[in-house]
Amino acid sequence: MKVNKSGFTLVELLIVIIVIGILSGIVLVTYNGLQARARDTRRMADLQNIAEAIGSYRAKYGNDVSTGSGCGYGGDGFGWFNYTGSSYPKSILTCLTEKGYLSSSIIDPFNCATTTDGPPCKQQGYAYMKYTSGSGDTSVTCVYAHLEASGSTSDLTDSSNPCYSASSSTVATSYGMNYYVLVK
User: Fold this and answer.
1) Is 123 left (phi over 0), alpha (psi -120 to 50) or beta?
2) Is residue 46 a part of any domain in this protein?
3) Residues 81 and 130: beta-carbon distance below 8 Å
4) Domain assignment present for 2
5) Which residue range is the domain that position 70 belongs to?
6) What's the number of domains the chain is made of?
7) How far apart are CA 60 and CA 83, in angstroms?
8) Does 1 fall in a domain?
9) How does residue 49 score in pLDDT terms, banded at 50, 70 and 90?
10) Structural domain contains residue 5
11) Is 4 or 68 the better-scoring residue by pLDDT?
12) Are 48 and 183 in contact (CB under 8 A)?
């Protein structure tokens, strides 16, 4: 009787399974990195759009959605960009949308409104923040976000950058922010 030897051995099957497992792991890690970079690209575009909207608001109203605007923390136009509640009478997003400077809802890709109230955040810092330091002609307004991928961040500790001040960099970094856009 002839024995058919055209099948695979157990060792050959194990080697194929191990190779497939290794390749799957590499693809999964690469895919997760691509997702993080895609979310970061959206965050950077969102901050640019927010900064442009605030700049347009400034051109018409003479301020950066600031003190007395009824928006943001205490109605003074700073803090979490999307949050409404407790000490936020109206979100900064709502103020800019109502005035026609933003046409759509802008929120972090994790749909996170704030790190202290509102929808739960996956990690501290996944929400947008607006902060103005100084006053009058010397004020500087920046919008902040947390980027996931390394190498895409801006240096919030560099005292020569326009968004650095003792208060704004401390506020931003204490909430995990590592990227900013200057409102011009």
Assistant:
1) beta
2) yes
3) yes
4) no
5) 11-182
6) 1
7) 24
8) no
9) very high
10) no
11) 68
12) no
